[in-house]
Automatic annotation (TrEMBL):
<dbReference type="Pfam" id="PF00078">
    <property type="entry name" value="RVT_1"/>
</dbReference>
<feature type="domain" description="Reverse transcriptase">
    <location>
        <begin position="119"/>
        <end position="205"/>
    </location>
</feature>
<protein>
    <recommendedName>
        <fullName>Reverse transcriptase domain-containing protein</fullName>
    </recommendedName>
</protein>
<dbReference type="InterPro" id="IPR000477">
    <property type="entry name" value="RT_dom"/>
</dbReference>
Amino acid sequence: MAKRLLQAMILIRLKYLPNFFTSVFTKEDDEDETFLKDIKYDEPSSDEVFKPKEINKLLKNLNTSKSPGPDQVHPKVLYELADIIDIPLCIIFNSSFSSGIVPEGWKIGQITALFKKGDKKLASNYRPVSLTSIICKIMEKLIRKRIVDHMNKYGLFSDRQFGFIGGRSTGLQLLKVLDHWTEILDNGGSIDAIYTDFIKAFDKVIT
């Protein structure tokens, strides 16, 4: 019985999981720029986009216990060589950003399937987790910071958004909702609440 179960698990991982994860991918149109209309932006500066100092800081904040990506560059190595490779990485990041070209190696990810719950023989009960290049993640953090700074500068974040924003949390969101509901009840009003549970939200992966 144990041998059959092991064979079934191997078959799921080698055949059914790749086919299932591929089937739920959504390919976006990279040429579609309609979402950029009517959004304010700053003209690019003549200065370099990224600086060695900020790259050095991110390198020294790496968690050295994490696993390396497909390029096998371990975070411990990046951490120890931070003062040496910050300038070369800065050149690579600025070149990649200005040209709009991402190195092919950064696009590769090692996919691990994590079982969530339910029948272990069903591929839909597994969630894919991708292990990617740590160097690429550092550049992504730099770009994310600039996007968030831009959004904050022009007030593009909604006051109702609490996820993925520094200084906000689900706890603060709950307090704000309770404060709003209390005010309504104190004024003699009523409240209707609808909750949506997105089961298997990670079954849809946008690339």
